[in-house]
Amino acid sequence: EEHVENMKRQLANLFYASLRAAFPNEPDDIEPLVAASTTKFGDYQCNNALGLFTKFKRNGTHYANVHAVGQDIMINLPPSEMIESCSIGGPGFVNVKLSNDWIAKSIQKMLVDGIETWAPRLPVKRVVVDFSSPNIAKEMHVGHLRSTIIGDSIARMLEFSNVEVLRRNHVGDWGTQFGMLIEYLFEQFPNVEDVNETAISDLQAFYKESKKIFDTDVAFKERAQKAVVRLQGGESKYRHAWTQICEISRKEFDKIYECLGVHLEEMGESFYNPYIPKVIEALSNQGLIEVNEDAHVIFIEGFKIPLIVVKKDGGYNYASTDLAALWYRLNEEKADWIIYVTDVGQQQHFDMVFSAAKRAGWLPDNDGTYPKASHVGFGLVLGEDGKRFRTRSSEVVRLVDLLDEAKVRMLEEARVKQKDRLKKGIIAIHWTEEELEQIAEIVGYAAVKYADLKNNRLTNYTFSFKQMLKNKGNTAVALLYAYARICSIIEKPERNIQELKTTGSLVLDHVDECMLGLHLMRFSEVSGSAEETSRLLLCEATVTVMRKCFHLLGIVPRDKI
Ligand code: ARG
């Protein structure tokens, strides 16, 4: 089915025609400034008049005031089914009131053709989303959880727009810490056969112990450094130990991804390691690399410190790997857009890597063109005490426990509610213990995801089970209940909603219906008796849009909860 432009786009096209007709002497790349209305006089507004008036005034214009400019924009609008009426507001705004008939028709058409026709169109074919990306043997913390949730949602939105998404887990699986880990491993288990999952089940504790010795015992430190060299030289005993350590971490990470329903493809730092020398050499041949205090660096305009690409000791680092990975993604994977999801603390690192790539000519200077690289940063997760999110024992929160707690709290509440209903004789579905658990899991995990996604991405946010599990207000719980309630209206057996989509007719009468209709239509902008029949269709449209929204957020709704 054909693609439908979102309302803002459609209006922008109309206003473009009117601006061209009203001001033929203006350059033809004049951009219509259309936005959702901020006043009650319309649903959308066009804001070009003020800028044009100021410009005309400079050039000695015949316009008496900004209102007259707005008037000219308004009268030149081509006739359109979508517009009910227009008016001029304050500083020449053209207010547009949309036609409810048109909205109703558009929604019904979506019901027949499918919500895919509302998917935004994007000028890219293949995108790498680099997200989650925890580090082997270190803890996967709430920051990685945020990256996982935000990155997954970005990937889902791109996929909805038919973009091929390479979901990359850039796991920290390489570097000097492995020398220390492997050396410690060999000392703990002189017999290689003893090295298995159960032997080093608590990899984080294992990491801490080895780090302690590394920091205090000079001889151990030297042995650890030699171990890195042997690992990097590909010696099989060392490779084997490394593989095993990675495998144990991977199993832990996978538990989280499984809970969250997130799919990722692991391509860790080690994958790009063989490409580093070649990439550094190319950059060096271009004259980008300089020697600075014995390290090899790239100086970047606007930054006081340079980007170190080869350390003093000749080793590579986080930046060398990221340069090689960016090169690989652009040249081997032919991605049009590469998106990195990490906390805002890494902003400068990515700014520098991207600038280096621009200097090397890998990326165009202009950020508006492709291929392009973007850093999607996010703020910290705070505890209710306003400090970094920790458990009571001030240990880092284990993510599995955190998700589990959301589920357990939901389950307790659901049990109490069910008992209460029984006692009061309220007729409702009686859930089995198994069903209750299923529901609690869906709602609990959804609550964690939604609480994370609804906040401003860049500011820190406070993690609160109590807030996120509320069944009223802007929470996943409230939305999932609303969704199930609407489903129950539609799903009466005597109502054949599939047939109604074509035989029934959707009409928007009541102000609340009009409001809901407008909201549903705006979905595609942000990513993007007869009466009873109409209500049912409106319900169906609502659940259709909600279902897609949930999907984009990585939430699985249930028809009954
Ligand atoms: N492993 C890093 C961390 O835990 C995140 C990696 C992000 N991706 C990248 N290409 N640098 O902070």
Automatic annotation (TrEMBL):
Gene3D superfamilies the record matches: Arginyl tRNA synthetase N-terminal domain, HUPs, Isoleucyl-tRNA Synthetase, Domain 1
Record EC number: 6.1.1.19
Catalytic activity reported: tRNA(Arg) + L-arginine + ATP = L-arginyl-tRNA(Arg) + AMP + diphosphate
Gene Ontology cellular component annotations, sorted alphabetically: cytoplasm
UniProt domain DALR anticodon binding: residue ranges: 479-561
Listed InterPro entries: aa-tRNA-synth_I_CS, Arg-tRNA-ligase, Arg-tRNA-synth_N, Arg-tRNA-synth_N_sf, ArgRS_core, DALR_anticod-bd, Rossmann-like_a/b/a_fold, tRNAsynth_Ia_anticodon-bd
Family matches, as NCBIfam families: argS (TIGR00456)
Family membership: Belongs to the class-I aminoacyl-tRNA synthetase family.
Name of the protein: arginine--tRNA ligase
